[in-house]
Amino acid sequence: MRTDECKKCGKERTIYGKGLCQACYWYEYNRNKAKSKKNKPLHKKKSKISSRKKIPKAGKSERQKLIRRLDSVFSELRKLESIKPNGKIDCFTCPRELTLQQAQLGHFRRRRHLGARWFDPNGNVQCNRCNVELDGNEEVYEQEIKDHYGESVLKEIYDRSRTTKITNEQLENKLKELTKRLNQIK
Fold first, then answer.
1. Distance from the Cα of residue 152 to its chain's centroid
2. From CA 149, how far away is CA 60, in angstroms rounded?
3. How high is the mean pLDDT in each 10-residue block of the chain (186 residues)?
4. What's the predicted TM-score (pTM) here?
5. Is 4 helix (H, G, I), strand (E, B) or coil?
């Protein structure tokens, strides 16, 4: 690199390109870049002819719809079963009183364990703090299950969570059973 007088600022400095010092060169570079951005449209127009083939999105499978419907019915059922005469619901893991809108259905064993997902003692009403912020409040939840249902039910929850395969027919039967129970409560 050579030392010479900068064409822009006139100072004796190392010349980088186009007869400018480093500071002036980068100033001009950024200024020109900003000018070119002003001329560009904010949104690129999509061409009518696409070079990529669009793959249609697959809809929800029958099984996914069935599981979603089961979750909805089970959640509503467990909440309605937990309502006290004053219209409030107690959180299963803490002393909070909740309204129906505030109540969430918390699962002791995670929902990915389909064998235990819709088993009544595994799903109980919890507040947002216990269910989301404390990630289910598992230690207290386990103790509450022992107190309310007994040690044998806790063992059954663990056993059911090891079930790996559930057929669509079993899911449909469970949905019919839960829907029938829900209609009796309403």
1. 33
2. 36
3. 79 79 77 66 55 66 94 96 95 95 95 94 96 94 96 96 91 96 91
4. 0.68
5. strand
- HSE at residue 75, side-chain half, CA atoms within 13 A, is 16
Who's near 179: CB < 8 A, 6+ residues apart?
73
Instruction: Enumerate long-range contacts of 82-87, CB under 8 Å, 24 or more apart.
Output: 82/124, 82/125
Strands 12-17 and 20-21 come out as antiparallel
Q: Where are the alpha helices (DSSP H) in 105-167?
A: 114-117, 128, 138-148, 151-161
Distance of CA 28 to the CA centre of its chain: 47
**63 three-class SS:** helix
Q: Which tokens sit at 170? A: 């079993």
Parallel/antiparallel/unpaired status of strands 97-98 and 89-90: antiparallel
Whole-number pLDDT of residue 47 = 52
